[in-house]
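FAQ: What does the model actually see?

It sees only this:
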Amino acid sequence: MDQLLAGKTALVTGGGVGIGKAIAQLFAREGARIAITYRTHEPDPQFFEDVTRSTGREPLALAADATDPAQVSDAIAAVEDGLGGLDVLVNNVGGLVQRATLGELTLELWQSILRVNLDSTFLFSQGALPLLRRGSGGRIVNVASLAGHTGGHPGALAYATSKAALFGFTRALATELAPDGITVNSLAPGFIEATPFHDTFTTAESKARTVAGIPLGRAGAPEDVAGAALWLASRYAGYVTGTVTDVNGGQYLR
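And it is asked to produce this:
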């Protein structure tokens, strides 16, 4: 069977854990040469083993703060030097940072959350653009969130705002890059277990209530998001751009 990303090179930011890790592993199984960035979640040995077994070469793992322009620039240069180019960029870095209502939010926390979720996507998209333009049919996939539609749970004001902004960023950049043949799409995962986000910020009781309200009757897994990312990165989505793909088990139908 043909591998969907054979001969392609992909960079997954925040690829050491959770959704990013699942995307990188699936892309590798589908033939892509893989680079990831990480900051707080260094990839484990099993990740390196999985990717190396799939592709015949170790992934390029780069420690980088995705909100620091100099570190982003260095990471992009390392991808070019190590892998020779770039075909697919997955902007997966993001996080809630801390729950806080409007009355509790400081300007510093507000700006920190927006930096993690928006500045990171802007910086990597801008930095990767020359490499994507050099190839044929480049792809950018931005990982947003269901919270961008719904506002999220209490204390997620800044996070939800940043994820909604990613929808607008995706559409605007898709329009801008269409003449280059580069597609730009976003994913909006719902409740995805086995991720640092829910391990840190969601109680067991809240998880149970959320899963009980999902029409498909289960929590999502990182692999569910990876499958949608693969489609957007593949030739089968070559005429798809500027979209938001919801991956939530029907969660917001209720």
